[in-house]
Fold this sequence. Notes:
Rossmann fold, disordered N terminus, 16% strand, six-stranded mixed β-sheet
Amino acid sequence: MSTEKSGSGLGRRDLLKLSAAAGVAVAGASLIGQKPVFAAEELSLKGKRIAISATGTDHFFDLQAYNAQIEEVKRLGGEPIAVDAGRNDGKLVSQLQTLIAQKPDAIVQILGTLSVIDPWLKKARDAGIPVLTVDVGSTNSINNTTSDNWGIGKDLALQLVSDIGGEGNIVVFNGFYGVTPCAIRYDQLVNVVKYFPKVKILQPELRDVIPNTVQDAFTQITAILNKYPEKGSIKAIWSAWDIPQLGATQALTAAGRTEIRTYGVDGSPEVLQLIADPNSPAGADVAQQPAEIGRTAIRNVAKLLAGQTLPRETYVSALLANKTNVGEVTKKLGIG
């Protein structure tokens, strides 16, 4: 649809106006489509050992943020102590224990289930080690560098509701509610949908998994399509990140159900390519800037160690890519 009225009385243009009007100001750096331009202030980590703990690096976002942090620590003259748990919670706990014992000048934790990592972030702070995070909503983090996930969740939900005309069944992956950004995005979806009574989230919700995310999503969506074989019985598929979206999109294509649209978050290049394909059911993906998020987190470490006061959260802007603007978004992001 374009500007036609949806079942709620609002058209796509109306919904997107609502999205823009409800947006929040974004703090921190936004360097979309540009080489990093560093602040005029002289930041330094000379002589400092900075620990970087990654939950995993198998996903585009995680790997980009992780590598950018290592590079930024080196650029500022520090020594990075970088470790990757490979999506294993036991290994993640063990690596945090090891890092605390090494007494670095700061620890930066990238993602993680809060119930798993928070006790160890607290132990680090109790040991006098400053803790900063990327995409972790912990009270034990001095500063969390992230995208505005409230805005991301709202904008993606409004795009979905607009695309389906304000009515229809949607399938939702909700496997990582313990991960703060995923929880926020899901809650925003629910908050938007409650104002559109003709939109229904099918129960039970699906649970995305790690590893084998794409294959598992493909299998689950194939089963759902067999349960709802009639066209129009499902209008959209939503996930809090875009790797389940990738598997779901592949399943829809294989089943010839390309009338159903998929939605996700992160801006993985392979998903943006599918959105750019007019024949693909990939509908929209909110593209984050993981490398800039990583660099910003390390610059915040340098500021903190220099005695500056940090905000509770630093936001780096993201862009909603849909069928209409995906070319512009990928160009701004510098993704080929």
